[in-house]
């Protein structure tokens, strides 16, 4: 088990870094392939690997420090940024919609997100999935029953609940519950399994084969549920492919950037929208409508500027960015 923990430090954080960097790219003008939705399932799958069933007081304390406090901090920070942008736009304090801060407590449908710092839905989704798994795992010891329940909940999320107004992104995140639970159930075993080279190669070949077959089969499908099912199969295959590839690539020095952003994924998710919005304004002001090349430039500039911001936040306000405890109760 210590070996798995070491490996997590060595390449799992790199994968998390890939997902959040992909999120930044997704929020810029990008090629069509960037839309492929593996980034969210991969992030939740990885998070599920290291889920632990603590006693309720310890569990709540950890989630408050690791997710709730950073969420509140970046929500309020973006709200100040929102006020500043609107003042620059209208030059009038009386026309600004100050009440938008309360949109956090509005119900949302489908892929709708908060007006203030939209990417924070990711963190809302994470705490929802953790609470769900905590409750079910507390009372269900059979992993097959747990997987069955997770599958049903995810299917309901895809086809029913996503179109129902829910609070705190509950409906939006349910489709990803299966990824979080499977990460929890088989993640550590999978990491141990691929420590042997032959197992690693076998998993890679099997995953690539399933992915290609899934892509081919989808061309003959038309019903929504069939497409969603094969999408899920393809995404799981791609997750396993990415795990194996990153395991073999992380030692290259150029890959360190993935580790850095992976270890600071909360800050990337909470702060990149502010930097990216400023860059969008500057690019659009000088170059007009953004192209795919402009989107790539915007992504690179956002990540470059995030780097020193992350270092500063970790040093001066670690309790607000999940690096130190804020709540010690």
From TrEMBL:
One of the record's GO molecular function terms: acyltransferase activity, transferring groups other than amino-acyl groups
Keyword annotations: Acyltransferase, Membrane, Transferase, Transmembrane, Transmembrane helix
Pfam families xref list: Acyl_transf_3 (PF01757)
Regions crossing the membrane: 12-28, 40-60, 67-85, 119-136, 143-161, 176-194, 201-221, 227-245, 291-313
Annotated signal peptide: none
Stretches assigned to the Acyltransferase domain: 10-303
InterPro entries for this protein: Acyl_transf_3_dom, Nod_factor_acetyltransferase
Highest taxon listed in the record's lineage: Bacteria
PANTHER family: MEMBRANE-BOUND ACYLTRANSFERASE YKRP-RELATED
Protein name: Acyltransferase
Organism field: Bacteroides faecium
Organism ancestry: Bacteria, Pseudomonadati, Bacteroidota, Bacteroidia, Bacteroidales
